[in-house]
Design goal:
This protein is an alpha/beta fold. The protein is built from 20 helices and nine strands. It folds into two domains: 84-383, P-loop containing nucleotide triphosphate hydrolases (Rossmann fold); 440-652, Up-down Bundle (Four Helix Bundle (Hemerythrin (Met), subunit A)). A nine-stranded mixed β-sheet has the order 4-3-5-2-6-1-7-8-9, sandwiched between helices. Helix 7 links the parallel strand 8 and strand 9 (317-319). Residues 613-702 form the GED domain.
């Protein structure tokens, strides 16, 4: 008989041999002696539990009952998993979605729905996990599970052989059959956590591929220890608790809390920890194990727990009887253990009703677990979808900083460098026009420059006010020292020119300061643009920085030369007659409107005649008004022309000239290794998140 086919070899039917179905997991090779272990009898008239049992297990072909004997052999192992039917019928779309996301590697970015088993040391948690998954896990006293064991069950098409592999510390080992699982896990734990009984938070991943398992992820966690044994760290208890909280605290994880029936439930650390991370019990299922070890007369206490009357959980409690250590020693197969468990509960006075109510046996646990898992998946999908979209957006934004990967051929490199420089030049051009894209709390370059020009306007106003205040003293100083045969009251043009020239000289250095402030802002902006565009190419970034500094010096010198030439021209006192007369009339009209300044001046220069001073103040104010208008616009125009526009244009031209020197392509595109790694990581993350969004859209159409 083909040992890959899930079939049962039936015994010959006799009057004393009732019909019996056996269920074992094809991917767990039993010991040959297991064939000698008789299955417990099954009453023919008890159809209720049988129907409940068959909800989870497919019926096998009905072979000739009169010609075959009922027994198990290593070659005729059945391929039945307790979650298989439910997977096929009800949760396959959900599990397929989560499996697809997990296959993409979404767990690197987000948490996916999973099942974790926790319990105090030697509580029987690994036995529960073994019964649910069909994989024989390490057993023994003390801390057997010393690392989180991620058990990935992957369903293969019918007819394909069992496959397995175990991964840890960047190593992956293929397993030839299920019999190697126990030894492989123990060896992996020795490598990861050391051979002296320590624990580790590093994950060991065991992947099982078979036609007879559903796509499901189960996580076995270390048992909670209270006392260090042997060479274990003194704080091993705290280490285990911290490890468990990190995993069971994830909202996408369903927690199976395993508690032996022969201990006080109120003293179990596992249940306390589950309540801390899941106070409402929405993600917690209590699992009572070892019911065969309950002392006579204490069954009612277990009944109260199962009735949710002791420590209530929203999802309640269930009770199971898995293989014990003696059963393992006797080489009891998983199939026989399932039948034995069924027989135990059917004939138990106190627990029979819980089996009938779907709260006892591994098959009932499978049904409960399946229902809870599918509801949990559906419940978490909206939040998961939102998290995937948010992660995709943020990752895409971050990837923009790294652009695409560096090409290999010379022509590709030239095109790539051209694109880099083109994007850089576009951003420089936008900055000079005041149209650049802003990031977070950034302020436009032109806005900063305009603020400097407002400062220049304030300087001009202050200079005019200061000159008006100082004119009387300068006029009388001339009168006292230089007036010759002129009669009093005649304005001296030389005095007028001297006053104007002195005012102009006072403005020259402040104008140079404004120039330096603006060119500093422009240099900072252009350097920032270079860093953003060439962040991954240190040589190209350095070349751009050198060009920015060189052009800055040239444009600063050019702008300063123009500004000083402007002030040299301003020292030539000149204004169109009509403009000057207009300003003079405006000043005199303002004086008349505000009252003659003679009284104020008289108090400053008495007992001298103030008329000559009043006239001089009017003339200097009129001329400086026109000169201020010129300087208020001309200095900013010079700065904008040389320091902003010419700077930007010359920088763009200079960067384009890099394309002419093909010998420097490799030098300019020499990329930082860390940047390349980051870009590849982000690119892969964007790819898998994009595919994840596609899977979610397809799932929503089902």
């Amino acid at each position: 008989m083909d040992n890959k086919k899930a079939a049962f070899k039936q015994p010959e039917k006799t009057k004393n041999t009732p019909k019996k179905e056996g269920f074992v997991f094809s991917f767990v090779k039993p010991f040959p002696e297991a064939a000698k272990v008789p299955l417990p009898p099954e009453p023919e008239d008890n159809l209720g539990p049988e129907k409940q049992f068959n909800k989870f297990f497919e019926s096998k072909p009905n072979y000739d009952q009169d010609s075959e004997e009922e027994f198990f052999t290593a070659e005729d192992q059945a391929a039945e998993h307790t979650l298989y039917n439910k997977y096929e019928e009800r949760i396959r779309p959900c599990i397929d979605l989560v499996d697809s996301l997990r296959a993409l590697g979404i767990e690197k970015d987000l948490s996916l729905p999973a099942i974790a088993v926790i319990g105090d040391q030697s509580s029987g948690k690994s036995s529960v996990l073994e019964a649910l998954s069909g994989v024989a896990l390490p057993r023994g006293n003390g801390i057997v599970t010393r690392c989180p064991l991620e058990l990935k069950l992957k369903r293969l098409p019918e007819g394909q052989a069992w496959q397995g592999k175990i991964s840890y510390k960047n190593m992956t080992l293929d397993l030839q059959n299920a019999f190697e699982v126990d030894r492989a896990i123990r060896q992996a734990q020795d490598v990861v956590a050391g051979p002296r009984g320590g624990i580790s938070n590093q994950l060991i991943s065991l992947e099982v591929r078979s036609p007879d398992v559903p796509d499901l992820t189960l996580i076995d966690l270390p048992g909670i220890a209270r006392v260090a044994v042997g060479n274990q760290p003194k704080d091993i208890g705290d280490q285990i608790k911290n490890l468990l909280k990190r995993i069971i605290g994830c909202k996408e994880t369903i927690n199976l809390v395993v508690v032996p029936c022969n201990v006080d439930i109120a003293t179990t650390e596992a249940l306390k920890m589950a309540q801390e991370v899941d106070p409402t019990g929405e993600r917690t299922i209590g699992i009572l194990t070892k019911p065969d070890l309950v002392d006579k007369g204490t069954e009612e206490a277990i009944v109260k727990i199962l009735q949710n009357r002791v420590i209530p959980l929203t999802k309640g409690y269930m009770i199971v009887r898995c293989r014990g250590q003696q059963d393992i020693h006797n080489k009891l197969t998983l199939a026989a253990a399932i039948q034995q468990e069924k027989h135990f509960f059917e004939n138990h006075t106190h627990f029979r009703s819980f089996m009938e109510g779907g709260k006892a046996t591994i098959p009932c646990l499978a049904e409960k677990l399946t229902d809870e898992l599918v509801k949990h998946i559906i419940k978490t999908l909206p939040a998961l979808e939102s998290q995937i979209h948010d992660a995709l957006y943020k990752t895409s934004q971050e990837l923009q900083r790294y652009k695409r990967g560096t090409p290999q051929t010379e022509s590709e490199k030239l095109f790539y460098l051209t694109d880099l420089i083109k994007f850089f030049n576009q951003e420089i051009s936008q900055s000079t026009r005041g149209e650049e894209q802003l990031f977070e709390d950034e302020v436009r370059l032109f806005t900063k420059i305009r603020k400097e020009f407002r400062t220049w306007g304030t300087i001009l106003l202050e200079c005019a006010a200061r000159a008006k205040k100082n004119v009387p003293g300068k006029v009388w100083r001339y009168e006292d020292r230089y007036r010759g045969r002129e009669f009093p009251g005649f304005s001296n043009y030389n005095t007028f020119e001297d006053i104007i020239k002195e005012q102009i000289r006072e403005l020259e250095e402040p104008a140079i300061d404004i120039l330096n402030n603006v060119i500093r802002l422009v240099e900072e902006k252009f350097t920032e643009v270079a860093k953003r565009n060439f962040a991954n190419f240190h040589n190209l970034s350095r070349v751009a920085k050198v060009k920015i500094e060189d052009i800055r010096e040239k444009q600063a010198a050019d702008a300063e030369r123009h500004i000083r030439a402007q002030f040299k021209m301003e020292k030539i006192v000149y204004c169109q007659d009509d403009l000057y007369i207009g300003d003079l009339n405006t000043v005199k009209a303002a004086n008349a409107l505000n009252g003659s300044p003679g009284a104020t001046l008289q108090s400053q220069i008495a007992p001298k005649d103030p008329s000559v001073v009043v006239e001089m103040v009017s003339h200097t104010s009129a001329y400086f008004s026109e000169a201020s208008k010129r300087l208020a616009n001309q200095i900013p125009l010079i700065i904008l022309s040389s320091v902003l526009h010419d700077f930007g244009e010359n920088l763009q031209t200079s960067m384009l000239q890099l394309l002419q020197d093909k010998e420097k392509l490799n030098f300019l595109l020499d990329e930082d290794s860390e940047a390349a790694k980051t870009r590849n990581y982000l690119s892969q993350r964007v790819d898998r998140l994009t595919k994840a969004c596609q899977y979610l859209r397809e799932f929503s159409l089902l």
